[in-house]
Every structure is written in C-alpha cells, then in structure tokens.
Design goal:
By secondary structure, the chain is of the alpha+beta class. Helices cover 18% and strands 32% of the residues. The structure holds alpha-L-arabinofuranose (AHR). Alpha-L-arabinofuranose binds next to loops.
C-alpha cells in the first residue's frame, strides 16, 4: 500500500467530527509561541488532567518567504457545522490573518490571507508537556481523537520506513545469508503496452551558477556592468564593477556612467580616462578564466579616443596573447579581436591597457572560446553541453524552477527580456542570489534543444510569483504583497501577460515574417523551432489567485494554439493541499500534463514503487511530468545509495510510463564554490566536469529507453518483506531499433541470481547482449558504469547474477 492509499483509508468521515456526544473530550489546537511548526493538537481526559500532545503538525502556514518566515501565531480552531475552520496570525507583526478549512483536520483547503490587525484575543495560553503555547479548546468525540491518534501512528510508521537507509543493512538483512537470492522474472509480452518515448529529459535552471559562469561560455563576468547590490540582498560589494580590477589605478580614473547608454536595458558602462600609458582594467571572469589552447573572440562596444592593448594573461600575469584596438568613434561602435592562445592556463584574466593617455567608454566586453558546443556564437561550454547531450534527454525544461516564476512579480522571468541583441536583453536578479545576464536566453535554450535533438519545454509563470517570495514592492497598492507571495499579476495587466505567452509560441513556431518569428529569424533561425509543450506554473500554491490566472493563460493557449500542449502544476510535494487541488483543477480543465515535484528520501522511493499504479490513465486522462525529483540523504550526498534508489524507483515509473510521460532529475548543474542546493546531477569547475552516480543512472535510462513496456511476473526467493522491495526490474522494447532492454536493480547487500524469461519476445538469441552495470558500496560517490559480460540467452532465458548494490541494463539486440 502506498502513502496515498494508506492515508485515504485512514481519513475520517467529516460528518462525525465535532459533535457534542457524551464521550466528547477537550482538544487543544495550538502553535508554539515563536510561531514555528504549524498547528498541533493535544487532548485531555478531564479538566484537571494534563494535555497529551498528538505529536504531529496537522497544517503548516504557507505565508511568507521560505523557512522560518512561515509562522502560525495564536491559532483558533472552530467547527461551523460542516467543516473545521482554522484562523491564525500569519505574520510576526500581526498584519496578516490566514484561514484554511478542513473536513477532518487531515485534508486542508488552500489557505487564504487578508490584511487585518491580528485578533489574538480568541486564543489563550496553555502549557503542553511543560511548554507554553497559544491556542483554543474545542470539543471532539473521543472516537475521533482516537482516529487522529491512529493516523499519527501510521504517519510515524511511514516516516520510519522512509528514514530507512542502507547504513543499517548489514543488521537488517543479516538473515539473508551469503548465498545469492533467486529472482525469477517472466515476461508477459501479450500484455505489452505503449509507453512514453520521452521519459527521460533534463531540467535546466540557473541555480548554483549553472548558466552565467557555467553552461553559458562567456568568460567575462559582469561584461555589461549591470550587477547591482539588489541582486544579492543589498550587498554593496556586488555592483557595476564586480569582477573588474584596476592594476595601475594611479594612472587614470574611471566612472560608472549612465548617460547615453548603448541601450535602455543596459544603462551602465565604464567611462575611462587614462592620464598616462599603462592605465588598465582587468576582468577576472568567474573565479578566473580557464583558457585552453585555441582561438578566443573578444568583442566590446566603445566610444572615445584611445589606443588600447587587449591581452590575456595567466595567473602569474604572463601574457598569453594580445591585440591592439584603436577606439576612434564618438558613438558606440563594435570592436573585436581574435586571440590565439597557445597553452592552457587556469586563473587567467582579460586586461585592457591604454597605450597612451586617452579616453574611452566601454560596455559589453565579451570573451568567448570559438570552440563552443557545436561552434555556436554566443554559445555554450562544450564539455558541459556534451555531458548533457550524453544523457540523451528527450526534452529540456527551462529556465526554472523558481527562476521561472521569480521572487515577486517584478522578478518573473519575462522571456522577451531574454531574446534579441545581447545589449538589449534585460538583466535580471537571480533569486538564488546572483545575476542573470540572460545571454543564455530563450533563443539559446531553443537552439540547444535543437542541437541535442530534445523537445523544448519552456516554463512560464502562471501569473503568480514563487509562493516563497520575499519581495514584491512593485504592486504595493496591495499591501499584502509587502510581505511577499500570494499575489498575482494585477488583473488589468493579465491581458498583456497572456499575450506574452502567446507571443512566445509565435517566437518559437511562427513564420519568419510574423512579428515574433521575425525576431527569431534575425537571431539566425528562420525555421520554426517546433515547440510542442509549454509549462504554465512551477509548484505554485493552488490558490484562487493562481487558479484565475492559470485558467486565463490555459484557455488562451488552447484556443490559439491547440497544437501546443500545456503542462500544469500541482505544488511542491507528492501529497497535500496543492497536490490535491492542483490535480482536481487539472482534471476539471483537462490539462494534458501536470508537473509533479518531490525531493524525498531513498526509503520513500523504495516504499512507494506503487505510487503511480492507481493513477487514472487512458484517453483524455491528464498525464504526469515528474519535473523535479531526487533522493535526498542526510548531508545531501550523491552516491550509490541515492542513485540506486532512483534507479529502482524509475523501474516503477517505466512500468507506469503510459501515465508518466516525462521525468527530470533536479537540479542539474552545480559549480564548485557556488553550490546553493545539493545534491545536483553534475558538479563542475572552470576546468572539469564531474557527473555523479545519479547522472549515470539517468544516462542509462536515457540511452536505453523504450516505447513499449513488457509487463512481467517477478518473484524474489525470500519472505523478508524489506528485501522484497529492494529488487526491481523493467523490460521495454525500443521500437526504433527493435532491441529489448532489461533493467535490473538490486538494492540489497547480497548478490541476486536473476533468471529473466523472455519467451515470446523477438530478438537475436545468438547475439551477445550489451550489458552495463553500476555497482558499489552505498557510500561510494565515484562509481561509474562499466561493461559486463553476459551470455546470449539462447533458450530465451537471461541468466545474470546481479551484484550486491547494483543497477544493470541489458540490451538484447534485434
Ligand atoms: O530544483 C531546485 C528548486 O526546487 C526549483 O527551483 C524549485 O522549483 C524547487 O523548489
């Protein structure tokens, strides 16, 4: 039984709640003084008896920015005759009141918030287990309280299961002995069903310096002098001159200027005055520039009168290459040079030195290797892009995540600000605490998708920013937004926002002579990109504000572009209010796909392999895009344990790939020294790229996906229930090649002798199968796939000993 089934069995009939029956008892609904931890309940047997806490959070406040800002003060619980109504003070200063309703104290409605001076008089102070709390007392039938107690016990049991880690395996599985367990699998080809051939994709978000300083191959940091303290919460050290330095400041002066800029979206530039030769500015790139032997293109915009030497120097200031540039224009003009670098040099910088006294204004100082991915101008770092391409992703979701819906309305990722000439793009504060040049913008994302043969899946905000937004000054006429989130783009602006979404489809798919198609053509791509999917929303709170805006966008896209399928959103978790209401809404509106997110423990994945088994499927049913997921262990490592949990879980996803159409691990990229979230699929520095074990699991799935699922009856020769859920398999046919692919996951500390009966399936029984295995100790983080010899299954039976803690993919060729 998975978590959803279990909890629905336990849910109590609403009608029984809160009746004053003879055995009614006092229940205290409360929260802590500091507002942290949400709604708790306690009961007592009689007036003089102590309160017995149920030890569970029944609902959390979702108002305010992430983490400790989400507070619930002075809750008041009441029953209005048909349902429970909970109100609380949602904000420390007492300006916001919140409300949610529930039929049974387990399922909760979306929360609503209103500006109102807090009324704390209806809650009182109590002591629960020696701790002072604020709340109120209601009467409930004892039987109902017992039901809640049972519910909490079941949640605890589940939590214990989900907390299971492989660290305890030697004890847990001591009884299995040393000899391999038998695992018999019998394929049932007659029950074969079509599945999605787009199951494995990637989710690219600019987090952890994934874009600027990462995948985007630009080497100059802050090339446009547009960094602002507000990118980093008011940090004054993060400004127009960040990443720039002045090797000989006494020889001249500079000013960050804004008069007559190159573009209104790019207001700042440097105005330099050299009193004598040798005045210079240097750019250190992103933690230094890692140069390789090869050609590099320097481009800059300048005006003034100066002779400048542009040079690349290594970490010890030894010159690697240099070129002279004569600035000779009153107006902004493009200047360029190509450097031929003869040797690799990490920690290098770009230096612009005045050869004589002079004056010049400069902006958009850019240095790219010519060897970008596929040699594209304004392109991507070749090694990183290739590592992504090697996953063989069928789609790319971009540009976020939270980056897509933004920290407040002003921070929503407006796609129009990310296309066109580089100097015309609108830089944007990155909500992960840095800056987006958006040189890697929508056009480049589309281009990358095309270059790697993946479908683009852009995600646009559903007219609401991130529910965890911390800022929202723009629309301050709605005072609620002063505290962040829960606001939407004002309705009078929604018409334009909806049009922006439609315009994106025109940019991607419209003819080259359409308004937005022409911009794409000017960027060098007259042919349409063939956009088929568009995401609306990212794990938003499913509130009225959201629903109203989502529907507007959804209806408009459906009406104007029935050929483009919408991917909706169902909150950040695998259960709960947003998940439930999000799904209801998707079904009501017949949204083709919804985007589910869950970051969970390996134990959750092990014990929820039936998560999708009960999902509605078939004609007209909304399908799932599992857009963000990963196995999280304490300390957030990427290792054999996390990777195998994902591999095992994906066997169950593949089994359900008629309803789960797409999946993508998250996050994708993380740069050393700038890691904001762990684990990630790929770590990198300026010089190296380090795929994780989890990456290799994704790669094995991506390179060995199928379009037909072959169900099988599988039995593990043990009655140890904990062992039984640790072994899984999946058989698919790749109809493009005709190959049969068998995936075998063994999460046990002992080997497992697998016998896979493939009778009835067509493949060349004489050809040696291609088999690849990842195996290692659960703690191991360096493991990589290796080939393994497997005999041809002459009789149609594949015999293979699955190593302890392993994932194996066997490809049987046509
Ligand atoms: O993947 C990192 C973040 O996790 C995404 O930005 C967001 O959608 C989720 O909360």
């Amino acid at each position: 039984m998975n978590i959803k089934t279990l909890l629905s069995v336990l849910a109590m009939p609403a009608a029984l709640m809160a009746q004053e029956v003879p055995d009614s008892i006092d229940v205290l609904a409360y929260s802590s003084f500091d507002g942290k931890g949400g709604l708790k309940l306690a009961w007592r047997a009689g007036d003089a008896q102590p309160w017995q806490p149920l030890g569970y959070t029944f609902v959390n406040s979702d108002f305010g920015p992430w983490g400790s800002h989400k507070t619930m003060f002075a809750p008041v619980l009441e029953h209005d005759g048909s349902q429970w109504v909970l109100t609380w003070v949602a904000e420390r200063n007492g300006y916001v009141m919140a409300e949610a309703t529930s039929p049974d104290l387990l399922k909760w409605s979306p929360q609503t918030y209103a500006m109102s001076q807090a009324d704390r008089t209806r809650s009182a102070q109590y002591a629960v287990a020696g701790e002072g709390v604020l709340g109120n007392v209601v009467r409930m039938p004892k039987a109902e309280v017992d039901g809640l107690i049972d519910y909490v016990a079941v949640r605890r049991e589940l939590d214990d299961k989900y907390a299971e880690t492989m660290a305890g395996d030697s004890e847990r599985f001591a009884s299995l002995g040393a000899s391999p367990l038998k695992y018999t699998v019998k394929a049932e080809p007659k029950k074969a069903k079509p599945i999605s051939d787009m199951l494995i994709g990637i989710f690219f978000e600019d987090i952890n310096y994934a874009a600027d300083g990462g995948l985007y191959a630009e080497l100059v940091q802050n090339r446009d002098f547009e960094y602002q303290p507000s990118d980093r919460g008011g940090d004054k050290g993060w400004n127009a001159t960040t990443a720039w330095s002045w090797p000989a400041p006494e020889k001249g002066s500079y000013e960050v200027a804004t008069a007559s800029p190159i573009h209104e979206n790019n207001k700042h530039y440097l105005s330099l005055s050299a009193r004598e030769a040798g005045y210079a500015i240097a750019n250190h790139g992103y933690d230094g520039m890692a140069l390789s032997k090869g050609l590099y293109d320097l481009n800059l915009k300048a005006r003034g009168n100066a002779s400048i030497t542009a040079s690349l120097v290594d970490a010890k200031d030894h010159q690697l290459a240099s070129k002279k540039i004569a600035i000779d224009s009153k107006d902004w003009k493009d200047y360029s040079a190509t450097f031929d670098v003869a040797r690799a040099a990490d920690g290098s910088k770009l230096v612009l030195t005045f050869d004589a006294p002079g004056q010049a204004s400069i902006d958009m100082v850019s240095l790219f290797p010519q060897a970008t991915f596929k040699g594209r101008k304004n392109g991507l770092r070749a090694d990183l892009a290739q590592t992504l391409a090697d996953l063989h992703p069928r789609f790319v979701r971009f540009p976020g995540g939270c980056v897509a819906h933004g920290d407040g309305i002003d921070n929503i990722y407006d796609w129009k600000g990310s296309v066109g000439p580089l100097e015309a793009r609108k830089p944007l504060r990155n909500l992960w605490g840095y800056h987006q040049t958006r040189g890697l913008g929508y056009h480049e994302y589309f281009q990358f998708c095309e270059d790697i043969g993946a479908e683009p899946l852009p995600v646009l905000a559903a007219g609401v920013p991130c529910q965890n937004s911390g800022t929202n000054a723009h629309h301050s006429h709605d005072a609620l937004t002063r505290f962040g989130q829960q606001c939407g783009i004002p309705m009078e602006e929604m018409g334009q926002y909806v049009q922006d979404v439609l315009d994106l489809i025109e940019y991607a798919n419209g003819p080259a002579d359409s308004k937005w198609g022409a911009l794409r053509a000017q960027a060098g791509h007259p042919e349409p990109f063939g956009l088929k999917y568009i995401g609306i929303g990212n794990e938003d709170m499913i509130t009225e504000v959201f629903e109203e805006r989502f529907k507007m966008i959804y209806d408009a896209v459906k009406a104007a572009h029935p050929e483009v399928e919408v991917v909706g959103t169902v909150g950040p978790f695998y259960e709960g209010t947003d998940y439930e209401r999000g799904w209801e809404l998707a079904k009501e509106l017949q949204v083709p796909y919804v985007d589910e997110h869950y970051y969970v423990s390996p134990g959750w994945m092990i014990y929820n392999q039936d998560y999708y088994d009960g999902y509605e499927r078939g004609e007209g049913a909304t399908r799932v895009y599992l857009g963000e997921y990963a196995a999280h262990l304490d300390g957030r490592p990427s290792n054999i344990e996390t990777a195998l949990a994902e591999a095992l879980y994906l066997t169950s996803v593949e089994r359900n790939a008629d309803v789960v159409a797409m999946t993508s691990y998250a996050p994708l990229l993380a740069k050393d020294g700038h890691i904001q979230w762990r684990p990630d699929l790929i770590y990198f520095s300026n010089t190296d790229v380090r795929p994780t074990v989890d990456y290799y699991v994704q790669q094995l799935y991506g390179q060995n996906s199928g379009s037909l699922y072959i169900p099988a009856a599988a039995t593990l020769g043990t009655d140890n229930e904990k062992a039984a859920v640790r072994v899984g398999s999946s058989i698919v046919k790749d109809e493009a090649t005709g190959d049969i692919i068998v995936k075998l996951a063994n999460l046990l500390p002992v080997p497992v002798d697998a016998s896979v009966d493939l009778a009835g399936l067509k493949f060349d029984r004489k050809k040696t199968p291609v088999a690849t295995v990842i195996a290692g100790h659960p703690d191991e983080s360096e493991a990589a796939p290796r080939s393994v010899a497997i005999s041809a299954p002459k009789s149609g039976k594949l015999a293979y000993e699955m190593p302890a803690y392993s994932f194996t993919v066997v490809r049987l060729r046509k």
